[in-house]
Structures are given as C-alpha cells and as structure tokens.
Amino acid sequence: MAVLSQKMAAHHTQCDDVFARAEAAAERGDWAACAQSATAFRDDVLAHFAVEEGTIFPAFEAATGMTEGPTRVMRGEHVQMRDLMAALVAAADASDAEAFSDAAETLLILMQQHNMKEENILYPMCDQTVGNDPVVGAAIEALGQKGAS
C-alpha cells in the first residue's frame, strides 16, 4: 500500500505550487501577493512537518526501533527549512528582493533534496511499516483536507 507515499508527495507538490506563486509575485515586484503566498507556503509546510514529526515519524520509529536513522535526518532538515522560511517571509514582508531571492534559492535546493529523500526512501519505508496505521491515515487525511493555500 503506497497511499502514505502518494498523499505526502502530493502535498509536497501543493506546497511547491504555493512557493512558486510567492517567487512569481516577487519577480513582478508584487510584494503584497508575495508576502501572502510566502506566509501561506510557510503555514502549509509547517502543517506538513507537524504531521510528519507528530504522527508519521513516531509511528515509524515505534514500529522499526529506528530513532537515529532517516527520521532524525529529516527532523534536522526541517529545522533548517524553518529558519529559511522565516527569512523568506521576513524578506517578503520587508519587500527585500535580495534577501527574498537568497532565502528562496537556498530553500529551493534544500527542499528538492529533502523531498527526494522522503519520497524515494522514507515514505516507501513508512508505507511498509505504518501505511495501514489508522492514526497515521487520519493525520494524512486531515492534512489533505486542509489543502495547500
């Protein structure tokens, strides 16, 4: 069953779309739209992280006993992305094109690498171990119902 992989990867794509809207608005110099999209992106990604860190990762760790493996790496990258998203939103709010571009460029590279690791390694492992867990399923469904902004 690959429902977890599919739904979490689909949410990555939804978040990427909101990020692209923020970048497009910055390119146009529409800082109000940029700030709105950057904030929506941050909120969507934080909701995604909350499902992973609060439900999926603990369930995976409990099922496998692996607490120092891929989930630890993902949590560390989440910390880095939180900092970059804060810088992105602050730059958008300040209409600071250079700071926005710097944060966006670094964040994009980190997100691409991070999402590939989740989608190609961690999520398939989670499908096998906790893919049928009703608590995990409910958390993913709630994330999907919120949808990306």
UniProtKB/TrEMBL annotation:
What is the protein's name according to its record? Hemerythrin domain-containing protein
| Superkingdom of source | Bacteria
The chain positions of domain Hemerythrin-like read 6-126
Q: Which organism is it from?
A: Denitromonas halophila
Question: Any one cellular component term from GO for this entry?
Answer: plasma membrane
InterPro entries with a match to the protein in the record: Hemerythrin-like
